[in-house]
Design brief:
By secondary structure, the chain is mainly alpha-helical. Helix content is 70%, strand content 0%. The protein is built from five helices and no strands. The chain has helices at 10-51, 57-70, 81-87, 94-114, 122-125. Helix 1 crosses helix 2. The protein is elongated. The termini are far apart.
Length: 126
């Protein structure tokens, strides 16, 4: 019967809603901050979330990696790729505001996800 399968957990539904709403912005921000490989990684994550029946440690690690990218965690290291991409962004570019908005919204979503009992915490994924 089609109704026999359990509904996805609340955490996955929350992530699906966020990625459905922000998919294009996530892809654009990831490319700006990490190039084509970061864009592809973010899009793979979005696809995994849409297909996932539940949260896994792998999904959580990928979520943390995306948050680190959007939060500019690695731009302090002058030898990192992130620093090079960040240096190429004009501070007056409207994309900067969008990245800040997206980073804050993603952080809020992950905080709500941390409150879900069926999800591995960010500490476990790090």
């Amino acid at each position: 019967m089609p109704y026999d399968s359990p509904a996805p957990p609340a955490g996955i539904l929350l992530l699906r809603a966020f990625f459905d709403r922000e998919r294009a912005a996530i892809a654009a921000a990831a490319e700006l901050l990490g190039g084509r490989p970061a864009r592809e990684r973010a899009l793979r994550l979005a696809t995994r979330i849409s297909d996932a029946p539940r949260m896994t440690a792998l999904l959580r690690r990928e979520l943390v990696a995306l948050l680190r990218l959007l939060s500019l965690d690695e731009v302090d290291d002058p030898y990192s790729d992130a620093a090079g991409f960040f240096a190429g962004i004009d501070p007056a570019d409207p994309a900067v505001h969008n990245i800040c908005r997206l980073s804050e919204a993603f952080e809020t979503t992950l905080a709500a996800l941390d409150a879900a009992p069926d999800v591995p915490s960010r500490r476990e994924a790090a």
